[in-house]
Amino acid sequence: MDHYQPDKTDLFTFGLWTVGNVGRDPFGEAVRRRLTPSEIVQKLAQLGAYGVNLHDNDLVPIGAPLKERDRIVAEFRAVLDETGMKVAMASSNLFFHPVFKDGAFTANDPKVRAFAFQKTLAAIDLAVELGAATFVFWGGREGAETDACRDPREALKRLRAAVDFFCEYALEQRYPLRFALEAKPNEPRGDIYLATTGHMLHFIETLAHPEMVGVNPEVAHETMAGLSFVHAVAQAMEAGKLFHVDLNAQRIGRFDQDLRFGSEDLKQAFLLVRLLEGTAGGERYSGPRHFDAHAYRTEDEAGVWEFARGCMRTYKMLAERARAFDADPEVRGLLAEQLDPALEPLLSGYTREKAGRLRALALDPDELSARGLCYERLDQLLVEFLLGVRS
Ligand code: GCO
Ligand code: MN
Ligand code: MN
Fold first, then answer.
1. Which of 205, 240, 246 lies closest to 89, judged by CA?
2. Does the pTM exceed 0.85?
């Protein structure tokens, strides 16, 4: 049996728009035919995925009459049931139609905002109907090229009003739904509001129902900003806010590449999987592992499935490498050496007595700084595990 063959317990998911990507970019037309949602679900099920994610319009065309909508949803439901695939996450497309050229929830025209609300209410209903546990807000058009157009503080107030509104709606309907906010620094707008996961985490604390709202960090987006994705995810986990995660690959200083997971910066990918899987001892992330990525534009349909297989296989290979790394006696020894369990209790929970004991400690900074930390050795071990030279 292939050790890296995924199955449903791995909780791997793909957006309909990811494997469904036809390879269009700002400089060129589609290179692949559009796959139907049913085809996507069937093929992903064969490959061992757990489920799919969707924007409202990945399934139901914008403006479709109710009868048509219901027919499409019923047909989709049947394929899900037949394959045992789940819809893990859903969202509302608030960026494609020209009506959103000035944003959706932050647009200056209140009629545009009203349309975005109307569309999102329907998308939330659809999400719940399909059994999605998480609803993502990715505000790709919530930004500006010229900040002369609106006070950014007003934009934040409008975003807050919108998220609060949908939380209230979900509560009133008794929907078992959580919301996840996805940050991106730019693209398609010149600057997008709430540019990073850190911005989002603070914004959530200003909402009326912060407990219902978490984040959906994406590798590419944090990397575009030149930041450590591992740190962003760690902060979200530590705050109990990692509701969902968008896995892909990206090089710094580029457009949003959305590449196959693990295809760039394998070391960051390794450290990310190590964090999500909790192999170093922290709590494991238990939600779906979503690949928000697409195949190279060079690929035909076979290449798309190769891409999907690759995302899942690389995740599992990295998880296996991370487990081996963290079980290694030398690695454990190097990490343990850094700790002094006897001293730890003094360093949290202020009491006057602890402050007194701290003052009395004989600590010589010159002596402390003379000690090498062996992080070169530790990182070299990481590289050797990553390359499979050590196991
Ligand atoms: C991007 C975004 C999108 C969102 C998706 C869900 O690549 O710019 O990540 O793919 O994740 O639209 O809302
Ligand atoms: Mn994403
Ligand atoms: Mn992206």
1. 246
2. yes
